[in-house]
Amino acid sequence: MKITAPLSDDAVLAELGRRLAQTRLERNLTQAELGDEAGIGLATVQRLESGRPARLTSLIRVLRILGLLEALELLVPEPTPSPIERLKLHGKKRRRAARPRSTGSPREDAKPWMWGDEHGGDA
Question: Which of 10, 21, 58, 115 has its CA 20 to 30 A from that of 69?
Fold first, then answer.
Protein backbone atom coordinates (compact mmCIF):
# COMPACT_ATOMS: atom_id res chain seq x y z
CA MET A 1 0.00 0.00 0.00
CA LYS A 2 1.27 3.45 -0.85
CA ILE A 3 1.32 5.97 2.00
CA THR A 4 -0.66 9.01 0.88
CA ALA A 5 -2.29 12.00 2.55
CA PRO A 6 -5.86 10.61 2.53
CA LEU A 7 -4.84 7.64 4.72
CA SER A 8 -5.75 7.85 8.39
CA ASP A 9 -3.01 8.03 10.99
CA ASP A 10 -3.84 4.47 12.06
CA ALA A 11 -3.52 3.24 8.47
CA VAL A 12 -0.13 4.94 8.10
CA LEU A 13 1.11 3.41 11.36
CA ALA A 14 -0.13 -0.02 10.28
CA GLU A 15 1.66 0.25 6.93
CA LEU A 16 4.88 1.43 8.55
CA GLY A 17 4.67 -1.46 11.00
CA ARG A 18 4.13 -3.94 8.17
CA ARG A 19 7.15 -2.55 6.31
CA LEU A 20 9.34 -2.67 9.41
CA ALA A 21 8.34 -6.30 10.03
CA GLN A 22 9.06 -7.24 6.41
CA THR A 23 12.46 -5.53 6.50
CA ARG A 24 13.30 -7.27 9.78
CA LEU A 25 12.43 -10.65 8.25
CA GLU A 26 14.52 -9.88 5.16
CA ARG A 27 17.46 -9.23 7.52
CA ASN A 28 16.68 -12.62 9.14
CA LEU A 29 16.16 -11.11 12.61
CA THR A 30 13.62 -12.15 15.20
CA GLN A 31 11.71 -9.46 17.06
CA ALA A 32 13.72 -10.29 20.18
CA GLU A 33 17.03 -9.97 18.32
CA LEU A 34 16.01 -6.65 16.82
CA GLY A 35 14.93 -5.38 20.24
CA ASP A 36 18.22 -6.47 21.83
CA GLU A 37 20.32 -4.85 19.11
CA ALA A 38 18.25 -1.66 19.22
CA GLY A 39 18.26 -1.51 23.02
CA ILE A 40 14.48 -1.66 23.29
CA GLY A 41 12.12 -4.28 24.65
CA LEU A 42 10.37 -7.00 22.70
CA ALA A 43 7.01 -5.39 23.48
CA THR A 44 8.18 -2.15 21.86
CA VAL A 45 9.20 -3.97 18.68
CA GLN A 46 5.83 -5.70 18.64
CA ARG A 47 4.08 -2.36 19.18
CA LEU A 48 5.95 -0.77 16.26
CA GLU A 49 5.28 -3.67 13.93
CA SER A 50 1.59 -3.84 14.83
CA GLY A 51 1.14 -0.15 14.02
CA ARG A 52 0.49 0.99 17.56
CA PRO A 53 2.03 4.25 18.82
CA ALA A 54 5.57 4.11 20.19
CA ARG A 55 8.27 6.58 21.13
CA LEU A 56 10.09 8.26 18.28
CA THR A 57 13.45 7.29 19.80
CA SER A 58 12.41 3.63 19.61
CA LEU A 59 11.64 4.01 15.91
CA ILE A 60 15.02 5.71 15.35
CA ARG A 61 16.83 2.86 17.10
CA VAL A 62 15.00 0.25 15.00
CA LEU A 63 15.69 2.15 11.78
CA ARG A 64 19.38 2.37 12.69
CA ILE A 65 19.65 -1.42 13.21
CA LEU A 66 17.74 -2.13 9.99
CA GLY A 67 20.04 0.21 8.06
CA LEU A 68 17.23 2.64 7.25
CA LEU A 69 18.13 5.65 9.39
CA GLU A 70 19.49 7.63 6.43
CA ALA A 71 16.03 7.41 4.85
CA LEU A 72 14.88 10.03 7.36
CA GLU A 73 16.90 12.53 5.31
CA LEU A 74 14.40 12.01 2.49
CA LEU A 75 11.48 12.21 4.88
CA VAL A 76 12.41 15.61 6.28
CA PRO A 77 15.09 17.18 4.07
CA GLU A 78 17.20 20.10 5.22
CA PRO A 79 15.22 23.22 4.28
CA THR A 80 16.93 25.50 1.81
CA PRO A 81 15.84 29.11 1.49
CA SER A 82 14.97 30.52 -1.90
CA PRO A 83 17.57 32.79 -3.55
CA ILE A 84 15.47 35.86 -2.69
CA GLU A 85 15.13 34.72 0.94
CA ARG A 86 18.92 34.22 1.10
CA LEU A 87 19.44 37.80 -0.06
CA LYS A 88 17.02 39.09 2.58
CA LEU A 89 18.68 37.10 5.35
CA HIS A 90 22.27 38.07 4.43
CA GLY A 91 23.57 34.67 5.57
CA LYS A 92 21.59 34.61 8.82
CA LYS A 93 19.25 31.78 9.81
CA ARG A 94 15.54 32.42 9.83
CA ARG A 95 14.26 32.33 13.42
CA ARG A 96 10.49 32.72 13.16
CA ALA A 97 7.58 32.52 10.78
CA ALA A 98 6.07 35.67 9.38
CA ARG A 99 2.51 36.68 10.15
CA PRO A 100 0.07 36.27 7.29
CA ARG A 101 -0.29 39.43 5.27
CA SER A 102 -3.65 41.15 5.34
CA THR A 103 -5.97 40.49 2.44
CA GLY A 104 -6.51 44.17 1.85
CA SER A 105 -10.15 43.98 2.88
CA PRO A 106 -11.08 46.24 5.79
CA ARG A 107 -11.74 44.67 9.14
CA GLU A 108 -15.30 44.76 10.36
CA ASP A 109 -14.39 46.77 13.45
CA ALA A 110 -12.10 49.23 11.60
CA LYS A 111 -13.22 52.82 11.29
CA PRO A 112 -13.12 54.43 7.83
CA TRP A 113 -9.97 56.41 7.18
CA MET A 114 -10.28 60.20 7.32
CA TRP A 115 -7.86 63.06 6.63
CA GLY A 116 -8.19 64.33 10.15
CA ASP A 117 -9.61 67.75 9.33
CA GLU A 118 -13.18 66.44 8.93
CA HIS A 119 -15.46 66.93 11.89
CA GLY A 120 -18.33 64.49 11.95
CA GLY A 121 -19.59 65.25 8.45
CA ASP A 122 -19.41 69.11 8.64
CA ALA A 123 -18.00 70.55 5.45
Answer: 10
